[in-house]
Known about the structure:
By secondary structure, the chain is of the alpha/beta class. It is built from seven helices and 15 strands.
Amino acid sequence: MQAMIFSAQSADALQKVRGRALIVWHILNLVRAEITDIVLQHDDASDLLETTLGTGAQFGARLRYCGPPPGLDAAIGVEIDHAFNHAHQARELLGAAPFIGVSGNIYCPHFSFASLFDALEESDLWGNPYPVDERDIAWISLVKNPPHRPAGDFALTSFSVSNEGLPRHSFAGIGIYRPEILAAVPAGQTIDLLALLGEFAQRAQVGGDVYRGDWVKVDNAAQCALLNAPFSPPALPGQSA
């Protein structure tokens, strides 16, 4: 099993919460699930991730990097929370087996990636293989709608993700995907993963469940400060807070 962490900007994934960069929380949790082969996708032309994290040996992982050529930032045009970019390059790195994907700018320190291992089923209860064009192409985690997305993204019925229905939940930026999903991204283009999942959900090819553990999308330094605030040491007598 391999994994890909996708981040629009390297600096976002390197924001620290409780003394660790967001992306390091993911790496450690992936390694805890015995997933040590990890591709880091980014969309800026800096080598900030690579110079900061290196080969990943210090985490017990092998890190590889997938991004634009030096001096060429990905032209996204609009802000996209979850995106598959450089998909053909990523597919070469990830191989032919399903892979776990997680957004680099979320904080979910207790998520068990091992829970996704058997989520994409190959056959029905009687052992009959699902037709390739009918089986789930993705299994995603959904969360309670955060303040920035009150209307949610998807409905969930009997572990089947749909575009219509109530109640609504928001995509957590976590899932397991078949590599064929990357083939849906035109060469050299960026595609919004949320929109792509919506297309496959329309074909009843996306499964999922609701994650009820700690989960926060960290958009800026202020949010990061709020997450760190409860763990700040109290002011000593005579010091200002």
